[in-house]
Amino acid sequence: MAELAAAWSRLDAAARETEAIRIQDCFTAEPDRLARMTLDAAGLFLDLSKQAWTAAGLDAALSLAAAAGVEAQRARLFAGEAVNTSEDRAVLHPALRAPRGAAFAAKGQPVSSEVEAGRAAMRAFADGVRSGAIAGAAGKPFRKVLHIGIGGSDLGPRLVWEALRPLDPQIELRFTANVDGAEIAAALEGLDPAETLVVAVSKTFTTLETMANAEAARAWLRAALGEAGDAHLVAVSANPQAAQAFGVPAERVFAFWDWVGGRYSIWSAVGLSCAVGLGWERFQAFLDGAAEMDAHFVAAPMARNAPVLLALAHLFNRNGLSRPIRAVVPYAQRLRLFPAFLQQLEMESNGKRVTPQGLPSMHHTAASVFGDAGTNGQHAFFQLLHQGTDVIPVDLVAVAETDEGPAGMHAKLLANVLAQAEALMVGRTEDDVRAELAGKGMAPAAVDVLAPQRTFPGNRPSSLILLDRLTPERLGALIALYEHKTFVEGVIWGINSFDQWGVELGKTLAVRILAELEGGAPLAHDPSTTALIERLRR
Ligand code: F6P
Asked: Which of 126, 160, 162, 121 is nearest to 142 (CA)?
């Protein structure tokens, strides 16, 4: 404990020192800065040299990781110990993407052969749908998949499909998550039930939104195809009995396990729709890329470990420099949904204020994450990133090469990501602006007014993650990178990254309020809620 407290103090001290330093000056002061703060891992290139830490800051952060026992906790995770203590569960998403022949065990129970059997079943189903061997009730091949799920049962599949979908797919995926009926109405628009497969994904198979959407989709199938429409239903769940009770035939229920957290589940049968839409080979390549990142995370020394270094960069900002918000900007339209995916991964995992021992957390935990695709974000929120009163660190993601789109456009995209990172760090001094304005003949009084407005403070940190190409392997590695960095942060903050009690209260209250909105007896609420229920009651 004393060692950990000392490591936190050292991080604080290092962070205080950086407050008087400009990031760009560190490159002169630290000749090995680029070598130390950039690295390649699983086909990704990370540049953390534009972060606000000095070499001493990085050392302090590494000492903190050591004192918090990151290596030991990593070993416990991969050994299948019950690291999710509040639910007494192992957390073994790496088992889902491990190469054949792996030997993972969850709380001592071997799981790898079951995982391989599950993967084989997914593959057989995906191949069958794509070849037409598995067809609709009227014999028509499936041309569309409606994927139903929310949170972890939605964000990963949506991201993967948007990132990797062919331009003219043999089988098109549509998604619906929200209990706002507008979403399923739009998702079903133009679909022919006779060639639509409905995949309902829910770890619990009790989630209000997913059950409502699954019922609506089933009714839609039955309205067109009669009872035979049920043959178009597939379920993915860690509660297969509930899926069968819903009416999905046992052979169409793909199971996964309680040791797969919802936001870590894309690697399981939760990815079935993507396997159908992309074809098994590409889905397997996605798993392989993640497995490559797992191997790196397990083997690389802390100082050269991509998830560890990314976690430490974020933690240096969050704790050392008290920055509660981070932006994520993928300069790849196909990765547009990555910020939304990370919002659940990071904020549901680490948005905690109490330790597994039930004590208040001693440190600030997860930052709020927001973002959008670059360059679009540049025309929306980048003004605040460059000149706002808060310093908001940014993760930039870029793809070096692509075959998509007209020649020349990709260089423009890359020029923008590099320009933004440079502008954030270097800024533009008032003297420089003054000289330019004066050079244009502006009157001194006008220069006095305008120059401060056109000055960029700079010294705003960013990380760059570069994919050589947006392949299934690299996408798998990118997601696994962030999964592991989220885990490392949770270990250092001393919280359980794998439960989510904070989502329960609202769900319970919604059930009560729904009964009231539908005419049930009024219940006790605060005056504002009571008045709103009264206004909205039917
Ligand atoms: O939002 C809370 C949550 O429990 C997430 O953790 C989960 O990914 C999502 O709901 C969906 O849950 P399920 O897969 O059980 O429907």
From this structure: 126
What is the tens place of the pLDDT at every residue in 164-212?
999 999 999 999 999 999 999 999 999 999 999 999 999 999 999 999 9
Contacts for 505 with CB less than 8 Å, ≥ 6 apart: none
What is the average per-residue pLDDT within 243-251?
95
What burial class does residue 408 get, using C-beta atoms within 10 Å of its C-beta: 0-12 exposed, 13-18 middle, 19+ buried?
A: exposed
Report whether 369 contacts 339 (CB < 8 A). Answer: yes
- Centroid of ligand 1 to alpha carbon of 203 (angstroms): 7
Distance 210 CA to ligand 1 centre (A): 10
- Report the chain's C-alpha Rg in angstroms: 25
CA-nearest of 431, 517, 495 to 85 is: 495
> Quick check: 223 and 206 in contact, CB under 8 A?
no
pLDDT of residue 538: 73
Q: Model confidence over 362-418: pLDDT tens digits?
A: 999 999 999 999 999 999 999 999 999 999 999 999 999 999 999 999 999 999 999
| Cβ–ligand 1 contact at 262 (below 6 Å) | yes
The C-alpha atoms of residue 498 and residue 91 are separated, in whole angstroms, by 8
Can you read off the two tokens belonging to residue 41? 């891992």
Assess whether the C-beta atom of 157 lies below 6 angstroms from ligand 1. Answer: no
Residue 340 CA to residue 73 CA, distance in Å, equals: 27
Tokens of residue 17, six digits: 């020192």
CB of residue 153 inside a 6 A radius of ligand 1: yes
Count of other CB atoms within 10 angstroms of residue 150: 20
Residues in the chain: 538
Q: Which residues contact 149 (CB under 8 A, 6 or more apart)?
A: 157, 177, 200, 201, 202, 210, 236, 270
Is residue 326 helix, strand or coil?
A: strand
Alpha-carbon dihedral sign for residues 293, 295, 298, 299: negative
Residue 1 banded pLDDT, cuts 50, 70, 90:
confident
CA-based end-to-end distance of the chain = 58
**Nearest protein Cα to ligand 1, atom 16:** 202
* pTM greater than the 0.90 cutoff: yes
Q: How many CA atoms lie within 13 A of 1 on its CB side?
A: 1
- Point out the ligand 1 atom lying closest to the alpha carbon of residue 150: 11
d(Cα 513, Cα 22) in Å, to the nearest integer?
53
